[in-house]
């Protein structure tokens, strides 16, 4: 017998799942991103027990053609890129074709979907990577995916999870960021029947900020923008009196994709100069637009870390734009502000 053998497909999917599907929040992220890529205008996320029991994502997007649903669960199958060139101009959130097969290899997944021109929809049931059922279904256009019993066959992963409260906070965090980066989609999040977020999806960032941080806090945030030859930035930052004890209230969006980047978060904080108390950080939602050729999103499977050319230049632009805006605010005496 040869020593080197190709891995069985399900096993390979489970190994990929180790990177893509770390916790319930990663499943929520992947499913909602798929719904966004499908051009949905409404996405409802319903979880039970912080997603450990069930995660359901319902969208009204394009749906998947009935004869392609099995393919959606095959690794490296994607409708989003076809050539190497596409990889350098990615506009969709997904492109690796890894999420569905990875999730289905470590959970019990039912996907029901219908495209606009199909007469009926289709339901596919996959558990632990094995297809259990495929049948036609009656449903409106869009996709509904139900993930039950996440990590039922990978006990080590299950054991590694934090408390329900922590897992739910991670789900909230991801949904909030996706909502902030997609103000034109009505997004709701419900856990055990309790509504945690509901955005209106009318394209207004401020409305999304209100839905997430509350109306009172939203009023303490001011719009700012900045521009140079390579970058355009636009967003809201809190007045120095609205602060938080962590940097996690700074949401960064790059070409509509939310990212994590310490250098850029710190650049925003630096824009406040000495106006923040030690250990306090602003709330911010900042959208940065640049030529997709200047970003490499293919750095990590979850795509939250990206590589940006001219990052230092972008950081300086952020600091300067925030600084200028905050300075300008201070010139207006409080008494005149609400006139
Ligand atoms: P990727 O998003 O990287 O393409 P996924 O495994 O997440 O890979 O999804 C595989 C394919 O299934 C997608 O390319 C898309 O064609 C289809 N798909 C998944 N979810 C949806 C959805 N909610 N609506 C429409 N199509 C979907
Ligand atoms: Mg995807």
TrEMBL record:
Belongs to the DNA mismatch repair MutL/HexB family. Residues 209-327 form the DNA mismatch repair protein S5 domain. One of its GO terms (cellular component) is mismatch repair complex. It comes from Liquorilactobacillus capillatus DSM 19910. Keywords: DNA damage, DNA repair. GO terms for biological process: mismatch repair. The keyword DNA damage applies. This protein is involved in the repair of mismatches in DNA. It is required for dam-dependent methyl-directed DNA mismatch repair. May act as a 'molecular matchmaker', a protein that promotes the formation of a stable complex between two or more DNA-binding proteins in an ATP-dependent manner without itself being part of a final effector complex. One of its GO terms (molecular function) is ATP-dependent DNA damage sensor activity. This is DNA mismatch repair protein MutL.
């Amino acid at each position: 017998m040869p020593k080197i053998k190709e891995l069985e497909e399900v096993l390979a999917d489970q190994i990929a799942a180790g990177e893509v599907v770390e916790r319930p929040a990663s499943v929520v992220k992947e499913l909602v991103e798929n719904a966004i890529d499908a051009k949905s205008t409404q996405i409802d996320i319903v979880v039970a027990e912080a997603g450990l029991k069930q995660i359901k994502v319902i969208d009204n997007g394009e749906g998947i053609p009935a004869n392609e649903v099995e393919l959606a669960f095959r690794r490296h199958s994607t409708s989003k890129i076809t050539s190497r060139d596409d990889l350098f101009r990615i506009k969709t959130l997904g492109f690796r074709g890894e999420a569905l097969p990875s999730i289905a290899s470590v959970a019990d997944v039912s996907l029901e979907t219908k495209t606009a021109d199909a007469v009926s929809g289709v339901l596919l049931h996959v558990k632990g990577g094995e297809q259990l059922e495929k049948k036609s279904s009656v449903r409106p256009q869009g996709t509904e995916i139900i993930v039950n019993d996440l990590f039922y066959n990978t006990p080590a992963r299950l054991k590694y999870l934090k408390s329900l409260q922590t897992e739910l906070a991670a789900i909230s965090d991801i949904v909030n960021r996706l909502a902030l980066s997609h103000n034109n989609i009505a997004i709701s999040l419900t856990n055990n029947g309790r509504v945690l977020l509901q955005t209106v999806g009318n394209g207004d960032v401020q409305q999304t900020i209100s839905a997430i941080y509350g109306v009172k806090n939203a009023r303490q945030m001011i719009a700012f923008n900045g521009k140079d030859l390579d970058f355009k930035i636009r967003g809201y930052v809190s007045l120095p009196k609205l602060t938080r004890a962590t940097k996690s209230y700074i949401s960064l969006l790059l070409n509509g994709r939310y990212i994590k980047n310490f250098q850029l978060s710190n650049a925003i904080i630096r824009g406040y100069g000495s106006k923040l108390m030690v250990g306090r950080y602003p709330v911010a939602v900042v959208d940065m637009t640049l030529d997709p050729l200047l970003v490499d999103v293919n750095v990590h499977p979850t795509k939250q870390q990206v590589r940006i050319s001219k990052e230092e230049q972008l950081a300086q632009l952020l600091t300067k734009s925030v600084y200028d805006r905050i300075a300008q605010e201070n010139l207006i005496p409080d008494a005149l502000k609400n006139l």
